[in-house]
Every structure is written in structure tokens, then in C-alpha cells.
Amino acid sequence: MKLDEIIDKNYDCLTSTDQLIVQEIRRDKEEIKNLNSIQTAKRLGISRTSLVRLMKKLGISSYAEFKLILKQEKEDNSHSKIEMNTIIQDYHNMIEELKNYDYSTVCQQIYDAQSIYLYGSGNEQKAIIEEFKRIYNMDLICTYVLSPVYGQIEPKELVQFVKDNMFENTMVQVQLHKIIWNPDERGV
What we know:
Blueprint: H1 3-10, H2 16-27, H3 29-32, H4 37-44, H5 48-57, H6 63-75, H7 84-98, H8 104-112, H9 123-135, E1 144-146, H10 155-164, E2 170-172, H11 176-180
Parallel strand pairs: 1-2
């Protein structure tokens, strides 16, 4: 399915802010298809988490899937497939690029740190935290901070869920900017 069809199918589920963002995406597809998720979020004036949330509203499971949709659209062939060799070559290129950098200083700083703060917004980030603990052989005590998605779940419901499940080391926080300012306002 083409991106425009996906947007049209889910348009009624989008907030007015989301609608403005998808208009920008539609207008600048050629530029956006060459950006990673962080660059795209910056280009659109939103956080990466907001971008991922928008993808979910559109029924797109990840930014990688979004890029695949854009790439297939460019090929103008709905039956086209990405060749496994292309995927493998992309990974090899990424690994070669990573070899160009010296990570020893930052790794030493992580190892020597008294406290490390990792932020995530979903299961993928939780898995990354677990991998981080494994790589650095750390016996970390993690505090999880849960935040309800504004307009999707009430804070009271999330608090009750945490209480009912007796989660240890878990805090609940609300998106204060959604309470202080207009929830649809961007960049606050």
C-alpha cells in the first residue's frame, strides 16, 4: 500500500497536529526518505517518540517499515521486494562506517559512571537497556518511568495498572506540556 493510501485510510484518527505533520511528510517525501528517524523528527519539529507514535497511528509498526514504504513507492512497483543481498550489504556498510569511530573514551566513561540514565518509550528501549546491562556486565537497579499517552489513557488508569501489578521501581509521570499548554501545540 502506498503512503498516501495509508494516510488517507487513517486520517480520521489523527489529531490536527498529526494532520499538519503528514502534510509535510507528503510534501517532502523525497527529502524524508533519505533521513533517519532522528533527522526526520528534527526536520518535522517533533520528538522521535512523537514520530514513532504517529507511525503507530498510521498502522506502520516502525520507522524502518515507513522507509520501506517510501522506497517501494519510489520503485513504483507494488510487487517489488528488497533483495536479501541488499539488506546484507547495507548492514556491512553500516558496520564499516562504525569502524571509523573510536568509542573507547565513551565506553570508559560509561563504565566509570556512578549513575546512568537511560530513557525509552517502549519494549524496544527496554530490550536495549537489558542489552546495555549485559554488555557492561552491570547489576543495575532500573527505575521504570511510565507515562500515559495523552488522550489515549487516563493517568488514573495507568497508576491503577501499576498498583494492581505491583511493579517494583516504577514511577508514573504525566506529559506536563500537554496539561500546561494546548495539547495540540507543537514545540513547547
